[in-house]
Amino acid sequence: MALIKSISGIRGTIGGKPGETLSPLDVVKFTAAYGTWLLQTGPENRKIVVGRDGRISGELVQRLVVSTLNALGLDVIDVGLSTTPTVEMAVVFEKAAGGIILTASHNPKEWNALKLLNSKGEFISAEDGAKVLDIAANDSYEFVSVDKLGSYRTDDTTLDKHIDAIINYPLVDVTAIKKRKFKIVIDAINSTGAIAVPALLRALGVKDIVVLNEEVNGKFAHNPEPLPQHLTGLCNEVNKQQADLGIAVDPDVDRLCFVCEDGTLFGEEYTLVAVADYVLQHKKGNTVSNMSSTRALKDITLKNGGEYFPSAVGEVNVVNKMKQVNAVIGGEGNGGIIVPDLHYGRDALIGIALFLTQLAQTKKSVKQLRGTYPDYFISKNKIELNKGIDITRIFDHIQKKYKNNPINTDDGLKIEFENDWVHLRTSNTEPIIRIYAESSFETTADNIAKRIMHDIKESI
């Protein structure tokens, strides 16, 4: 059972005691706090967009959220089953004051969350998030009288508008994609990717589509995080179908990874690398990724005449850095792609369109395209934490042990070795420490991560 309050939103497990889980009382409390913050920010705009992924608890949480917002006097536009990037764009389409996405992203089925957006359709800042949490902590909200209740309407056109924006994006070549006649297998993980990804592919002229885990019921067929160990079914099906590629997304369709035509993984770290390479060939400029992402993006950026900038982990931090350095493409190594002149949010759908365009124009297979990029290996690990663990003491212990190495403390600890690095940080969404290590050799990356994990356990 868990309830995590952070700049990423309010995330928790369904069922259990209020204050310790994402109970109905907590959903109402944090929705009321967010709605109150919006009214304090700009009381003249009372429109709020609400959308959800395919989770089992989604409809329950959605009803609580809508009713709470209406009780504050806010007008709700319910886009129903949707994706995170679609809701982000819907806020802009509707000129709304903000939006709430009901999704726990890659977390298992017992989790859900409120992802909170501002009027730009971007995640609220850490400063604004702190204000929302303060309002919730002090119950500083009031509901309106019966004659001032907010309105409610549904809108099922937002995905179409999102897809239209993608197919009309200047670097997306629908003609080339259609001509290539791709056969594509999708792992939709029993969520809204089963709706959005096939609709996008059809709009791009792809007719031969196979969808795995197609029923949108939230009963995820496997762990929903698109990691190699969870995608064996997709890899096998790409081989079986003799498809050109496979596509995997997470439940809210903001993360993306590809499978090569031989059933091997393209590598989620290389999703951003490949899309950035294509964008940079047509639009010179800078790039940003978080400091847990592969250095291959830096290599590609320098090769194309741009400058690379690292950011702290978290979409808000990546977006802020992208704005600061006027980046033309950015994202995160977990398969998150941000195309700023479409919108400032991770978006698997624009990532798919740009990736297919690159394949179609170069006439390369997915495997051949992967072969054009440098080979780095990231070992991704995590250690679960018990309540009451002193994180500061653990990090101090590690920092002292590696005091002779270059260390960056902007976001956890990033330790540089001669040609390698390791980054350890607490998660914003789970009670864990993540340990990522990168090297030109897989065994070296694994060994660095294992060494650091041993150091962490030694300090507990």
From TrEMBL:
Q: What is this protein called?
A: Phosphoglucosamine mutase
Q: Residue limits of the Alpha-D-phosphohexomutase C-terminal domain?
A: 399-453
Keyword field contains Phosphoprotein: yes
Similarity remark:
Belongs to the phosphohexose mutase family.
* Transmembrane portions of the chain: none
Q: Does the keyword Translocase apply?
A: no
Query: Domain of life, per the record?
Result: Bacteria
Which GO molecular function, any one, fits this protein according to its record? phosphoglucosamine mutase activity
List cofactor names only. Mg(2+)
The record's keywords, sorted A to Z, are: Isomerase, Magnesium, Metal-binding, Phosphoprotein
Occurrences of domain Alpha-D-phosphohexomutase alpha/beta/alpha (ranges): 8-139, 162-263, 270-372
Question: Per its UniProt record, what InterPro entries does this chain match?
Answer: A-D-PHexomutase_a/b/a-I (IPR005844), A-D-PHexomutase_a/b/a-I/II/III (IPR016055), A-D-PHexomutase_a/b/a-II (IPR005845), A-D-PHexomutase_a/b/a-III (IPR005846), A-D-PHexomutase_C (IPR005843), A-D-PHexomutase_C_sf (IPR036900), A-D-PHexomutase_CS (IPR016066), Alpha-D-phosphohexomutase_SF (IPR005841)
Entry EC no(s)? 5.4.2.10
